[in-house]
Specification:
It is a single chain. This protein is an alpha+beta fold. Helices cover 60% and strands 13% of the residues. It contains six helices and two strands, in the order H-H-H-H-H-H-E-E. Strands 1-2 form a two-stranded antiparallel sheet. A hairpin with a 2-residue loop joins strand 1 and strand 2. The longest helix is centred in the last third of the chain and has 30 residues. It is globular and about 35 Å long. The protein starts with a helix and ends in a 9-residue tail after the last strand.
Amino acid sequence: MNTLEEILNEAKKQLNVIEDKQLAEAIHVTPSAISNWRKRGSRPDLFALMQLSDVLSIDARELLSIIEAEHAKSEDKQEYWEKMKERFSGSKKELMTIIACGFIFSSADCKLDMGQNQSITYKYMTPKMYIMSS
């Protein structure tokens, strides 16, 4: 997804609805709000952004980055938001790697390839257990 239009269409798809009115009801906004977003007259407020985030199971920061990049008034700002979008879309991979480390063994090294010659290594350790005897 690279535009607010695509975000709205994907949200409708996830909710299995056809009309913007149904989407509006599902995310607790007015149909005119969605109409304004589609016409680029306004953007979702934080409440609506969080509702869309929940529907799409996407980090709200990633959605914000998509919307801000689309509405940026200068190339510098657009580039900034594009970088943030990449960063926040990668945070999901990072979280899944951390969770996976916890399920592998009691001690495991997990490496996440972030692309562009960047990687992150996590070391997962379970707490030491002490057995007391009398």
